[in-house]
Amino acid sequence: MEITVTLITGRTAEQGVGKEIGKTSERYQRGVNYILLNPRDAERIGVEEGAAVEVSTLHGSTRVWCKLSEDIEAGMAFIPLGPWANRLFDPETHGTGIPSVKGVEAKIRRAEGEPPTLEELLKELKG
Question: For position 114, what pLDDT does the model report?
Fold first, then answer.
């Protein structure tokens, strides 16, 4: 089962605290390696809080942990800016210096396996 949502991103306070400790810290990685879903959307794909999900857009895909909140509307999803989110958005900036990271269509489904670690993401980028 798979759902289609509108994906948005941004920075979070927890991410900022983790960043001050260091981007290789566990706290930073926990602060950016998740997607926030409405519980009704999570139910539609059969996932609970803490489950791994696969998130795909036209620009790429990644696996992240699922967090649930009524604060996000059904049909929307939020992922903090960071290495996992970077795999989902078009890097083209159209001369602005900032890629478009709001309102991107994404497909979400239960993942096979855990999300990659930061080290695994970096190894993948190096090729």
Answer: 94
The yes-or-no verdict on residue 16 having pLDDT over 80 is no
Angle at 98 between CA 93 and CA 104, to 5 degrees: 80
C-alpha distance from residue 45 to each of 50, 54, 83, 105 (Å): 14, 11, 24, 17
Interacting residues of 57 by C-beta distance below 8 A, sequence separation 6+: 7, 88, 89, 104, 105, 106, 107
Per-position DSSP letters for 42-72, written without gaps between them: HHHTT--TT-EEEEEETTEEEEEEEEE-TTS
**Phi/psi at 3 (nearest 5 deg)?**
-120, 155
Q: Which two three-digit tokens encode residue 123? A: 């190894």
In tens, the pLDDT along 44-84 reads 999 999 999 999 999 999 999 999 999 999 999 999 988 89
This prediction's pTM: 0.87
118 neighbors 84 (Cβ within 8 angstroms): no
Can you list the domains of the chain with their CATH numbers? Answer: 2-126 (2.40.40.20)
